[in-house]
Amino acid sequence: MDWKVAEAKQKFSDVVRRAAKEPQLIYNRDRRVAAVIDARSFGEFEAWRKQSGQASLADAFEELRRVAKEERYKLTLPRRKNRRNALLNVLDDVSS
Fold it and tell me: What is the pLDDT of residues 15-45, one digit of tens each?
């Protein structure tokens, strides 16, 4: 069943009860924003995700942060330099 956010909030226990039978999709302004599923299906999803070995981008950044902290890595940024704006040169050529 499809729910609007406000309706799902008001009938949360009904949403959870129905999720045991089939996924409950929640929409905000005609855009799907959430899905409520039963715990067994979610457990299967987590197991599949671990088995697939494909880390998310968030996982990769978390690992990078951990390694950088372990290594006490400090990112040093070079001093910013002003440079010519190539677009301005093109616009000057076009207007001439």
Answer: 999 999 999 999 999 999 999 999 999 999 9
pTM for the model: 0.53
DSSP 8-state symbol, 4: E
Give the sign of the dihedral formed by CA 3, CA 1, CA 44, CA 51: negative
Pairing of strands 2-4, 24-28: parallel
Contact call for residues 23 and 36 (beta carbons, < 8 A): yes
CB hemisphere CA count around 87 (13 angstroms): 0
Tell me if 34 sits within 8 A of 26, measured CB to CB.
Answer: yes
One-letter amino acid for residue 15 of the chain: V
User: In this structure, are residues 16 and 42 in contact, taking their beta carbons and an 8 Å threshold?
Assistant: no
SS3 labels along 23-81: CEEEEECCEEEEEECCHHHHHHHHHHHHHHCCCCHHHHHHHHHHHHHHHCCCCCCCCCC
